[in-house]
Amino acid sequence: MMRIIECVPNVSEGRRAEVLDAFIRLLQAQPGVLLLDYHADPDHNRTVFTLIGDGPALLSAMLALYEKAVELIDMRQHRGEHPRAGAVDVCPFVPIAGATMEDCVALARELGRQVAERFQIPVFLYAHAATREDRRELPNIRKGEFEGWFEKIKDPNWKPDFGPDRVHPTAGITVIGARPPLIAYNVNLGTADLAVADRIARAIRFSSGGFRNVQARGMKLEARQQVQVSMNLLDFRQTPIHRVFEVIRAEAERFGVPVVGSEIVGLVPLEAIAQAADFYLRLENFSIDQVLEWRIQQALAERPAPPAAPSPPTPGPRPRALRRVLMSLVTRAVEARLEDADILEWLRRFRWPDGQVRCPHCGSAQVRAYRSSSRRRVVFTYRCRSCRRRFNDKTGTVFAQTRLPMARWLAAALLIELGAGRRSLQRYLGVDRATARRMWNGLTRDARLRQAMVRYMESALA
């Protein structure tokens, strides 16, 4: 059985598109490793990458990532809502298939040793790789953040597991470990009052008397004028997503604050989504074995491999040429078949899933809608009764202040998912260089929106 290990490095950069592009291209080029997902958050100024591979390939890929991060990130200039202590802030390994937790612990310790030797970065081991009980929890190590670690490291109790007894001047420290799968889950609240998010976070996290497997804190989303309860769910089987969500919603109601949405950062096990479906649909005698994709996966895993048969090579189009044809066809199909009115209707549902439009400037739900239409499109504009400001469906999104058809934005989202860069957007979408750069930067930073756009487009074209 193939050995598969997941690696989820968190890098302290979520805003500079050229730096993110360098990281993405570096990881995509690593042999024996697949980059499954990346989520860049400009408010947190942080990007979470998800990769899979075997031990040696992941070790090589992570050393390359550390080298690039030391080159491109200066923690002295870093600002963001999320707590952080280093350029590569945390790097956990997770056993997925054919690998044990002991394999991941050994991999974490070998990576820590080499990172310390090559880059002179202090390395702290956490979770199952921890060498001391007080270092098992990540928040304990990260407390004080980059700025506070220059004094903290002088304490003999905080001697690094590997590396020098001094903080790297630009890369800070790093935390490396091995853990089971966790879910990074955030719930956004319809208020700009950070105190509300802080109080709800205290109510649900284990360190304050809440759920055993929940780490949580309140954060401010400046661009959206909202606050967020940001969480790590350490064991979704013991503390499922829906249970945490319902408690947050109940706590928010006590303050008269609505839940305006939630997000999963990175990837999530199918079983966790099935748990939520079971709860909200009131399913009787439901089992994960009833999920079609799960059963197909299990059947394929149990099926014996067919004997290998050599086959002569067949001529065909070159991969690069085939990619160009695919991108051109995608762009034409999207713009020919999808109307702006339909896409804007989807955007309204995506932004306000409960049907209640909220002001992007102040978060108020006291909004008056104005509808106008022409031969090709229907446009909604709004006026907030609280702050008196006007806005539309695009305000506060990457689509704001642009006259491009929404179908072209959808095509851009899919092209980026297929690996297109800024020049490819310029070529296939027929836009100028500045517009292509703005589209690529905006959609790359907001992976949740981009992936939702692709899912909508696929269903609409189908």
Largest sheet report? 7 strands, mixed
Describe the oligomeric state of these chains in a short phrase. Answer: single chain
CATH architectural grouping of the largest domain: 2-Layer Sandwich
Low-confidence stretches: 311-319
Q: Helix coverage percent of residues?
A: 40-55%
Count of spatially separate domains: 3
CATH class of the largest domain: Alpha Beta
User: Total helix count?
Assistant: 15
Mean pLDDT: 85
CATH topology descriptor of the largest domain: Formiminotransferase-cyclodeaminase, Chain B, domain 1
Give the ordered list of helices and strands. EEHEEHEHEHHEEHEEHEHHHHEEEHHHH
Q: What radius of gyration results from the CA coordinates?
A: 23 Å
CATH superfamily of the largest domain: Formiminotransferase, N-terminal subdomain
Strand content: 15-25%
Question: How does this model look, in words?
Answer:
The chain is an alpha+beta fold. The protein has three domains: 4-178, Formiminotransferase, N-terminal subdomain (Formiminotransferase-cyclodeaminase, Chain B, domain 1, 2-Layer Sandwich); 183-288, Formiminotransferase, C-terminal subdomain (Alpha-Beta Plaits); 319-360 and 391-461, no CATH class. Helix content is 41%, strand content 19%. The chain has 15 helices and 14 strands. It has helices at residues 17-28, 55-72, 101-119, 138-142, 145-152, 194-204, 241-254, 270-280, 292-302, 319-337, 340-351, 406-417, 422-429, 433-445, 447-461; strands spanning 4-7, 10-11, 33-41, 46-53, 88-97, 123-127, 174-178, 183-189, 214-221, 226-233, 259-265, 367-373, 378-384, 390-392. Strands 1, 2, 3, 4, 5, 6 and 7 form a seven-stranded mixed beta sheet that branches. A four-stranded antiparallel beta sheet has the order 9-10-8-11, covered by helices on one side. Strands 12-13-14 form a three-stranded antiparallel beta sheet. Strand 9 (214-221) and strand 10 (226-233) form a beta hairpin. The longest helix has 19 residues, at 101-119. The relative contact order is 0.09.
